[in-house]
Write a sequence for this structure.
């Protein structure tokens, strides 16, 4: 079987210019799986309010983390592509949900490198299922596959939040940081609006409705982002033998005024020093590559908030990025 591999991530603006950031935010936020309103409502909100105000601020934030090679998210995804390519014979390409390269560009690259391609394995760079991350990436890749009339089969790796090799890898990436003195380890996940959790509940009656919903078995968990984040966190506590009370989880990056999953990371940074948590470790398992949300929102802004509120040390644990065990885990996924 002639196969190819695509690592699919979210994407970044082409540069830190306000013009490029505006274009990127317009594409991102006009996605109906991200801002789930009627087309007209979304157009008015995104083009009229969010993007004009957010683009200059986001451009500044991107400028603070940008490297000579470009956006960290893209650079790190390319480094992962190169590291995986060293381990497998099949051509490996990257694709982004927003911006470049698109899935179509990735399919065409794979076809150039492997004429007669029969199967493409798409690995979403998201361990957890959310309508606004995993689902939109996969649906976009499927749509471009169909529209392009490609004859190769498209195989998609399911969310791996509970997959033992992924969990082992995440634990291994955290373990060295536990050797230093710390009061608490915070697992901070990208947030989503609560409404998205209700929308994804295939039972219509479980998520955020049943007491302790994420702990009570339900078919809804297959698409419940909160359940999957809680599961990953609890497994880390178990694998790393974290003492009770020394770990917790929260949700970051809220946009707008609607209720999002709680507790909010930014609020916890303010509260924790007052609870006696002075030495903090933070890890962001919703991201497999470091990006704006980890490097700027957490490692820059979050650190400042925590220290300003009375914290003493703040240590950011990097994402899996090009961890050799992560590369090995990916080899396992593409080899089935
Ligand atoms: C990890 C999965 C992600 C989910 C779920 C997610 C939901 C989500 N995001 C926004 C709005 C923004 N997110 C932004 C950046 C961003 N988001 C993710 C991942 C998830 N988002 C990543 C990896 C990044 C970083 C991209 C990079 O280039 O480094 C941004 C852009 C930056 C900014 O202006 O803050 C926005 C906007 C919403 C509304 C949402 C769920 C509804
Ligand atoms: Fe996001
Ligand atoms: Fe739940």
């Amino acid at each position: 079987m002639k196969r190819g591999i695509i690592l699919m991530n979210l994407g970044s603006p082409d540069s830190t210019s306000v013009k490029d950031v505006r274009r990127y935010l317009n594409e991102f936020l006009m996605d109906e799986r991200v801002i789930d309103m009627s087309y007209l409502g979304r157009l008015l909100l995104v083009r009229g309010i969010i993007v004009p105000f957010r683009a200059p601020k986001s451009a500044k934030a991107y400028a603070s983390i940008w490297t000579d090679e470009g956006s960290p998210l893209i650079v790190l995804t390319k480094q992962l592509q190169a590291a995986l390519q060293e381990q497998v014979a099949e051509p490996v390409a990257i694709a982004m949900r927003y911006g470049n390269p698109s899935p179509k560009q990735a399919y065409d690259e794979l076809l150039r490198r492997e004429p007669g391609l029969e199967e493409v394995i798409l690995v979403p760079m998201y361990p957890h299922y959310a309508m606004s991350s995993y689902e939109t990436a996969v649906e976009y890749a499927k749509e471009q596959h169909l529209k392009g009339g490609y004859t190769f089969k498209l195989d998609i790796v399911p969310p791996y939040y509970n997959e033992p090799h992924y969990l082992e890898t995440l634990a291994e990436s955290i373990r060295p940081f536990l050797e230093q003195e710390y009061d608490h380890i915070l697992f901070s996940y990208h947030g989503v609006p609560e409404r998205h959790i209700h929308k994804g509940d295939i039972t219509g009656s479980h998520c955020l409705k049943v007491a302790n919903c994420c702990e009570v078995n339900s078919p809804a968990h297959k698409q419940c982002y909160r359940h999957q984040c809680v599961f990953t966190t609890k497994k880390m506590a178990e694998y790393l033998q974290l003492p009770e009370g020394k770990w917790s989880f929260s949700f970051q990056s809220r946009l707008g005024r609607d209720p999002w999953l709680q507790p909010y990371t930014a609020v916890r940074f303010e509260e924790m020093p007052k609870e006696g948590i002075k030495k903090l470790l933070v890890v962001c398992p919703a991201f497999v590559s470091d990006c704006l949300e980890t490097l700027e929102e957490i490692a820059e802004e979050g650190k400042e908030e925590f220290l300003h509120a009375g914290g003493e040390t703040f240590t950011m644990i990097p994402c899996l990025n090009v961890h050799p065990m992560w590369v090995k885990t990916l080899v396992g996924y593409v080899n089935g």
